[in-house]
Amino acid sequence: MNLASFWLDRLSRAVDAAMIALVPLLVALTFALVLARYFFSAGSIAAQEAGLWMHSLIFMLGAAGTLRADKHVRVDVWQQRQSPRVQAWIDLLGHALLLLPFAVFMGWISFDYVAASWSIAESSREPGGLPGVYLLKAVIPLTAALLLLQSLCEIIKRLQQLASLREPGA
User: Fold this and answer.
1) Is residue 160 situated within a structural domain?
2) pTM (2 decimals)?
3) Number of structural domains found in the chain
């Protein structure tokens, strides 16, 4: 189980590194678009869409890494007052009963949507927009898969944590 957890975490870290590299590019592109619009009265639909694409990639592909780093949104009002063992159980059940089914549903429900986009090689509806919108839509099931894998990794970690927190004499 340690080996699986190690490789799943490593995959998540690699995706995170790529998404972190996109952040300064997105900031620079946004800055350039603002300068072009307000100082030169110029704009580019493709560049604006590129910014939207980068933003989408950062959030969608960064979700699993956020989960790995335990920086996701959660309500800790009750959990933080519990023992480490109870906290591990809450996390384990949350992943098994909530996140795993959500990730499976997200992947399943997006399949036809993405397949339809690929079948027509969907591109931007805007004149001068980016081609290959189907590539961006393909990130939806990829996000689901990454969340599923990271959730499995977190389940493995919680099982290991619970095993190490066994009550003395048990």
Assistant:
1) yes
2) 0.85
3) 1
